[in-house]
Amino acid sequence: MENAVAKSGKINAFLKRKGIIISGRRYGIDAMSAMAQGLFCSLLIGTIINTIGTQTGLTFLNDIGGFASAMSGPAMAIAIGYALKCPPLVLFSLAAVGYSSNQLGGAGGPLAVLIIAIIAAEIGKAVSKETKIDILVTPLVTILAGVGLSALIAPAIGLAASSVGQAIMWATEQQPFIMGILVSVMVGMALTLPISSAAICHALGLTGLAGGAALAGCCANMVGFAVMSFRENRWGGLVSQGLGTSMLQMGNIVRNPKIWIPAILTSAITGPMATVVFKLQMNGPAVASGMGTCGLVGPIGVYTGWVNDVAAGIKASITAADWIALVMISIVLPAIICWALGLICRRIGWIKEGDLTLES
Question: Quick check: pTM over 0.85?
Fold first, then answer.
């Protein structure tokens, strides 16, 4: 018994010395949020640049966009390693791990990248600076572990993630009203919580009507909180939440969860409106489904989908009705509905003065 306790103590001391912290927050929040940033700086930016190139006829932008998008796997893995505070040799070695896991994971590659990059990063950290030939050992172990795991489990992880995403999209097509509510509310809440709705949408490949519902939920939270808290936070708060993130309200939500009710109810209303009334589809990159109005990435993603559909002959043209649907779901309806519901919550005392004030 004493030997087991002593051994456990040595392991814990080793893990602490190496900065290996095994926790849900570390892997499910920190790593996933960083992964979303990696996605933004590769696939998403690449898609936007490519769309600009297509619309302007500047073909060199299509090349640049293609290069950026192709690096999504390495960008995600390196971002994850940065969040896990990896030493330089481990961090740089994760480029190969991200590429292999993303490629072998197929449509569900992002989830494979998340899982495999975390494991490879922690293994790399464990061996880092433990030998006199660290410059050889650390990259070798990190890459062998990551690429080996990619070959073994990335296809299965990717298939599982893709299957779940396909099931959600199929269910949304079959039951647009019910699924419009569920997808909108859940993705919208994920956006406000300290987890990455963008990474979730990309990992599951949520596009089509389900992507439109996800976009509606994100916009309901971002635009909703921005408008609802205008009296407390004025223009700075409107911009930081409406074009930044509703996650800024998380501290206030912990103190008074009732302030979240208007945004959640708004997403439950605008989600089915997106799927049933406007039939809004996100046929751009799946990651944009979980971005909302952050940097206007969500609406730009919808527009990118329109452009791609027109080029493929699936869609005849971009109509005024398309633009009306996008503006209504992304900005107008979230602003009006959440503001009105927030006013009701203020009147009945669920939201008090200062409850929505952002910390400076």
Answer: no
